[in-house]
Design goal:
This protein has 1 helix and 30 strands. Strand 24 and strand 25 form a beta hairpin. By secondary structure, it is mainly β. The strands form 6 sheets. Strands 8-9-10-12-16-15-14-13 form an 8-stranded mixed sheet. A 5-stranded mixed sheet has the order 2-20-19-18-17, with no helix packed on it. The N terminus is likely disordered.
Length: about 375
């Protein structure tokens, strides 16, 4: 029997899935009760605290939750540090918490990884990216009642990407922001119905997977989103999957890839529980998505790089890897076409066929 993947237009392909079960690794040191972001750097786990706390970065022991090292960012102020992210050269600190929607001093600080990861470093200087939202014209204060808040960020290629925390609509906007110091504008690129408040983000450069964490407005019931198979930096335009977490009422704030298919999570202290570090198995989103209008079929999946695509009309086939790069192109004729993508490595790929942008996922296994 052949397995057929039916295609849909190039829109977020959202899969509903079962509840996921995170595991508590350890309580965190009480000095970290307002942990708000996570990042893993060379095997080391780092966090920062949010509004009104020290302008410092903390290296923590993931087994005990104790602080191994504190690095103060000397020329920065912690107005509301909400997330941290890293690329090959820099750690970025998102001072963009904006519950009132009225901030005019949004910042991202960046510090050199080589200096931060030096065991002898206790103080460090930062460059500053000052920014505003290109579309914001009204700065009237509206506490927890605006769509200009943000607590989640990733660094990809030469840019930062912010995922907003929209109190009014429970959606999330995707913003692109230059990673170069100076005065910048954050440009809105896309929107997704987050079904809650997004509070953290993480990016895995090994496969392009993105995960967001958040909780439902008012109830603090945590969830995660996963994104993969997207073209370029259009993160919401591939496969998207949302899962609730079985942790109960928890103000989950931080998320970071610990390894392929595993993330760390952290939550702030609340009246119900203290700050804790969690672990969660989290692989790439998968599934077969169908549309009654689909006129393109592909099979089998998984495959070894050889598969068949059937189309009604001559079309162009493009295959993207997990980072959105085009790795294969092929002209298709009407009817069944053999695709022999022998050079592609094992992994998950997105395939687009035809000018309408119909997409589907192919898993290559050898």
């Amino acid at each position: 029997m052949r397995t057929i993947a039916l295609l849909t237009p190039l829109l977020p392909l959202v899969a509903s899935a079962q509840m996921l079960v995170p595991t508590v690794i350890t309580p965190l040191n009480t000095a970290l009760n307002e942990t708000s972001g996570l990042v893993v750097l060379g095997g080391e786990v780092w966090t920062q605290l949010d509004s009104g706390n020290p302008n410092a970065l903390y290296n923590i022991d993931p087994a005990s939750g104790e602080i191994l090292r504190t690095v103060t960012v000397m020329n920065a102020t912690n107005v509301d540090w909400e997330d941290i992210a890293a690329d090959d050269d820099w750690l970025y600190i998102g001072d963009f918490g904006n519950n009132g929607g009225d901030r005019i001093n949004l910042r991202v600080y960046r510090v050199a990884l080589t200096e931060l990861l030096d065991p002898g470093t206790t103080e460090i200087l930062a460059d500053t990216i000052r920014f505003a939202y290109a579309l914001q014209t009204d700065f009237t204060a509206a506490g927890n009642n605006n769509d200009w808040d943000c607590e989640a960020m990733i660094a990809v290629d030469d840019s930062l990407f912010l995922f907003s925390k929209n109190w009014v609509t429970n959606t999330s906007y995707l913003y692109a922001l230059s990673a170069t110091p100076g005065d910048r504008l954050a440009e809105r690129r896309d929107t997704i119905d987050a079904q809650g408040l997004i509070t953290g983000a993480t990016y895995d450069p090994s496969n392009g997977a993105i995960a967001l964490v958040g909780y439902t407005d008012g109830l603090y019931l945590p969830f995660v989103w996963r994104f993969a198979g997207y073209p370029g930096h259009a993160f919401f335009q591939g496969i998207a999957q949302r899962n609730t977490l079985s942790s109960g009422i928890t103000q989950m704030e931080g998320i970071a890839w610990a390894a392929t298919a595993t993330v760390y999570l952290s939550n702030e202290q609340s009246i119900l529980n203290g700050a804790r570090l969690w672990e969660l198995a989290l692989d790439l989103p998968t599934g077969i998505f169908t549309s009654p209008q689909a006129t393109i079929q592909a099979w089998p999946s998984p495959n070894d790089g050889h598969f068949t695509v059937a189309v009604n009309d001559p079309s162009l086939l493009e295959i993207w890897d997990a980072r959105g790069r085009t790795v294969w192109k092929q002209a298709l004729g009407a009817g069944e076409n053999a695709v022999q993508a022998d050079t592609l490595a094992t992994g998950l790929y997105t395939v687009r066929v035809g000018p309408a942008g119909s997409v589907f996922r192919i898993a290559i296994q050898r």
